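G., the chain you wanted modeled:
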Amino acid sequence: MKVIRSSLYIPANNPIFVDKCAKYPADNITFDIEDAVPPQEKDNARKMAAANLIQAGSNGAEVYVRVNGWHTEYTNDDLEAVVLPGLAGITLPKTRNVDDVKRLDWKISELEERRGIPAGTVKIAVLLETAEGIMNAYPICTASPRIVAAFFGAVDYCADMRINRTNEAPEQMVARTIVAIAARAAGIVALDAPFADYSNMDAFRKNTLDGRQMGFEGRMLINPSQVAVAHELYSPTPEELAHAEVIKKFFEEEGLAKGLAAVSLDGKMVDTPVYVSALNTLEFYDAIQKQENRSKTK
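Predicted structure as tokens:
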């Protein structure tokens, strides 16, 4: 079970942020050479990202680069610059269709072979942030075995739909839900959109919990102050863990051991889906512990 509770985005042309990124306890560090970087700085951003791939992951984080999308003239140069040892993955913004993914997969494969990187090393995360991308969500999420995660992109989605974006986000609910469902159906991690009003922590908490209820297991972050809160909210609470342990023990002893597929606990039915949900909670917690232990050993 892959853990990406936090994907912290770092403008790759900003040496202050780049130098500090290894200090942040995010599960994923993403060097951004797309929207956070103006055209005249693209080449500088490529060079800084490439030079800091290994350093950025020294705290145990996986290091990705968000390249520019295929609708621009920059993508090929981005990939040539950053697909190097130390890179865990590429995030493709404004993914429109299956062809966008297949084109990226082919280019990564060619670079891995040319540079002696084991085949399949570099993973893909897709950003679904246009009306076309949302409508093609499931085919996109299953377009390559390299894909490990799908992000919902609220800012570009709202711009594409010509609607106002709000902290409460009712205008995003349908698209957001589609991304979460498509990711789950594809067996990859669903990652929520960045929350632009990063100083409003109460609104960030509510928005994150709303997304968690839709099926998101992490999100894109634009400020280090959001990392600890994201890890808290995307991790099972002590109460959830205790309840999962009770369900697991009770169903195995009073249900499975006695040939029953549904039993009553404190006036509530416990059946196979409830049991599986408890197992998922415990498995996710175990994966989080392994992730954090790996970070401590770095």
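The longest strand covers residues 6-11.

Shout if anything looks off.
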